[in-house]
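Notes, p. 3: input format for complexes.
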Amino acid sequence: MSNFQQLKENIDTFTNFREFTPKEEEVAKEVAKIIQSQGAINCTACRYCMEVCPRGINIPAIFGLYNVYQSNKQSFMFTANYNALKEDEKADKCINCHLCSKNCPQGLDIPALLKKVDALEKEVEKKG
Ligand code: SF4
Ligand code: SF4
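Output follows (128 residues plus iron/sulfur cluster):
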């Protein structure tokens, strides 16, 4: 957390907090294992990165599309949804300033991951 708003959001998360039952915890761990084994990017869509990005790259949306593609390999859906993003929000508009990574609670190397998604998108689009 790097500002008051983020602190407030995190505290709100615990309003009406209820612990997982052991069974729910087991299921959550299994789901996390499956997602990670599919090469997903560990982005929680908190959008803290976007608060500091000078280019307005839609980082969580891009990572979300990548993660869905890793799980379903639906090329058409991936390119169609990627192309539905505004031009100036796409991964190739990143200027590699690394401001976003400093704000990412998951410690993701965001510019490197954006390059990876951009390369994949171009490859998938080329294959048709
Ligand atoms: S590295 Fe790219 S995505 Fe990150 S803040 Fe800079 S321009 Fe935005
Ligand atoms: S700060 Fe990290 S975890 Fe949060 S949306 Fe951005 S990339 Fe995802």
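The pocket of iron/sulfur cluster (ligand 2) is lined by residues 43-49, 59-60, 103-104, 106, 108, 110 (CB under 6 Å).
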